[in-house]
Amino acid sequence: MSVTTSTPVAPAPHGRGRGFRALWAAQVLSVLGDSFSQLAVPLLVLDATGSIATAGLLTGASGVAAVVAGLFAGVVVDRFDRRALLVGADVARMLLLAAAPLVWWLAPTPPIWPLFVLLPLAAAIGMVFQVAAVTVVRGLVDGPELTRANGRLYAGTALAAVAGPALAGAVSGWWGPAGALAVDAASFGVS
What we know:
With 191 residues, the chain is mainly α. The protein has a single domain, classed as Growth Hormone, Chain: A (Up-down Bundle), CATH 1.20.1250.20. It has helices at residues 16-49, 52-79, 82-106, 113-140, 146-190. It is globular and about 55 Å long. Mean pLDDT is 85; it is low at 1-15.
C-alpha cells in the first residue's frame, strides 16, 4: 500500500489575483505608451522646427521633470491612496498627452511651447505612477509570491519596451507623430 502525498496549492485570494493582473496590464500599457511618446515627440518637433537641438531640449526637460518628481514621489505615494494615485496619474497623462495632438491638428501653424508644458508634466506624473506601482505590488500578492509577481511585472514591461518602438514607428508612419501621441494618450485611458 503506497501513500501518495501532494502539496495542495491554495488559490489566490479572490480579487488579489485580479488586482495584480490589472496592475500588470496597466504597467505594460504604460510602458508601451511611453515608447510611443519617446519616438513621436522628437519626430513631431523635427517636423515642426527642423531643429534637433529643440527636440533634444524637450527630451531633456521631460527627463529633468521626471527626476525632480522622483525626489518627492515617495512622499506623495506614502500620503495618498496608491490605487487612486495610479488611476489619477493615468487619467492626468491621458489628458496631457491628448492635448498635444489636438493642438497640433487644430492650429494652422502648431506652436512648440505647449509641448514644453505638457510633456514635462506628463513625465513628472509618470514618475509618481512608477513609484506607486512598485510599492503597490506588496499589497496585491502574498509574501511568497512577491518575487514571482515582480518577475512577471518586469518581464511584461520589458517586452513592451522592446515592442513599443516598433509599433510607435509604424503608427508614426501611418498617422504621423501626432497620431502616435494620440495612441499614447489612448493607452493611458485604457490603462
